[in-house]
Structure formats: structure tokens, C-alpha cells
Amino acid sequence: MLSIMDGSFITQARTAAIAVYTMFRVVKKYDVIAMVGLGGIGNIIGEILFEKIKDKNVLVKLMRHKDHAERFANKFSEYSNITFEIVDNYEDLMKDSDVVLSSVNYIENDYCDPSIYKKGCTVIPVHMRGFMECDHEFDHIITSDLENVKNFKYYNRFKRLTSWDDIQSGKVKPRESEDERVLMYNSGLGIFDLYFANKIYQYLLNK
Predict the structure, then answer these.
(1) Which residues have C-beta within 8 Å of that of residue 36, sequence separation ≥ 6?
(2) Residue percentage of the chain with pLDDT more than 90
(3) Contact in structure between 143 and 161 (CB atoms under 8 Å)
(4) 10 Å Cβ neighbour count for 159?
(5) What is the C-alpha to C-alpha distance for residues 123 and 33, in angstroms, rounded to an integer?
(6) Could you tell me which of 17, 40, 125, 132 has the fewest CB atoms within 10 Å of its CB?
(7) pTM score
(8) CA 91, CA 87: separation in Å to the nearest integer?
(9) Which range of residues forms the domain containing residue 14?
(10) Distances, alpha carbon 196 to alpha carbons 83, 143, 193, in Å
(11) Which residues contact 198 (CB under 8 A, 6 or more apart)?
(12) What's the number of domains the chain is made of?
């Protein structure tokens, strides 16, 4: 054993970074971005994403929950290119959104009916919750864990399933047409956290 380290922030930062990286890897159009789940991971997604898009005017829709949406919008109010819109139901949140970034830990049912999501949208669920019916309705499911999705209820009804490795290598395109709806289950692997923890440990030793 080298050390005992609290890795919770490492996990949050790594998961958030992969979500943003995934978005830029598979999405061309992101004029309207929906964000739900504005806790630790959601805030780090904001920190990374908004720096990446600060030269582009974007509408970011937030789901009202207690005062979380207001606090989030206020925290990132320095980005004059971003317009925040706070909505009161999931249908309004998802409707007309080019990208949906969800980092909610738990939701009992789906956010809304799959028909609500526009053509060409990309959904990125960090915790793989809230989109079960989309699994068999969306045109393309991309995952970093092929074994895990075999346990999904509608696995046998996926229209098209691709490993993230094949997207990353360029072997497979994220979408065959701009109208395809893509569901992207890519949150990375826990072993990444050990790699980063070791880098931090070595950095501290050198200090």
C-alpha cells in the first residue's frame, strides 16, 4: 500500500471530463444543451464545458429543483455567451435540446417519453438512469462497457450497438445521418481513478 486517499473528487472530475469529451467527440450541433443533476459532477461538467464553448452562444436549460438551478446559473454567470433557462418539468427540459447531460444519481422512472427528444439529439447519462425506454427507440447506443449493457431490459431490442473503442478509433461513425438520435453510455472505468491517484501521490512525493 502506498497511501490512503479520498478519491471522491477524482471520480467526479474524471467522470465529468469524460462526459464533456464524449460530447465533443460525437456532437456537431450543441446550440441548446439540457443539464439535469447539478451536484458535484454536474458542477464540474459546467466548469469544463463552459470554458470549452466560451466563444459560442449557447442556451443551457436547467431543471428547477430547490435552489440548485439558480445557484448553478449564478455560479457561471460570468459566461456572457451562455443564456440559462430554468424549466419546471422534464418535457420542457428535453424538448428541442441538441444535447442532454444527465448526472442524477437516482431517478425512479424515465424522465419523459422517448418521442419528446428531437431528431439528431445526443443523450449522455453519467449514471445510466432515466432513459430506459430510449434504449430501444434511439437509433444508436454507444457504450464503454459492452458487458454491462447486456443486463439492460431492452438489450435485445437495441437498433444499433457500438463499443466506444470503435468510435474513438474512427472505425464506426457516431451517426449515419444528422437525424439519428444517439444514447451515449460512456463514463469511463474506475481504474482511471487509480491511475490519477498514483499521479497525485507521485507529485506529492516530488514536492
Answers:
(1) 42, 62, 63, 90, 93, 100, 101, 102, 103, 104, 111, 130
(2) 86
(3) yes
(4) 13
(5) 10
(6) 132
(7) 0.93
(8) 9
(9) 8-206
(10) 34, 22, 5
(11) 2
(12) 1
Kindly state the helix (H) or strand (E) to which residue 74 belongs, with its residue range.
helix 68-75
pLDDT in tens, 150-172: 999 999 999 999 999 999 999 99
Cell representation of residue 70: 439558480
Q: Is 17 contained in some domain?
A: yes
Q: Is residue 2 part of a domain?
A: no
Q: Long-range contacts made by residues 21-27, C-beta under 8 angstroms, separation at least 24?
A: 22/124, 22/184, 22/186, 23/49, 23/99, 23/101, 23/122, 23/124, 24/52, 25/167, 25/168, 25/174, 26/122, 26/142, 26/167, 26/174, 26/175, 26/182, 26/184, 27/98, 27/99, 27/122
CATH of residue 56's domain is: 3.40.50.720
3 assigned to some structural domain:
no
* 13 vs 41: CA distance, rounded Å: 7
- Residues 121-140 have pLDDT tens digits of 999 999 888 999 999 999 99
Cell digits of residue 91? 418535457
How would DSSP label each residue in 1-42?
Answer: -------HHHHHHHHHHHHHHHHHHH-S--SEEEEE--SHHH
Cell numbers given for 40: 458535484
Q: Please state, in angstroms and rounded to a whole number, the distance separating the CA atoms of residues 43 and 86.
A: 16
User: Is 69's pLDDT higher than 80?
Assistant: yes
* Cβ neighbours for 191, distance < 8 A, ≥ 6 positions apart: none
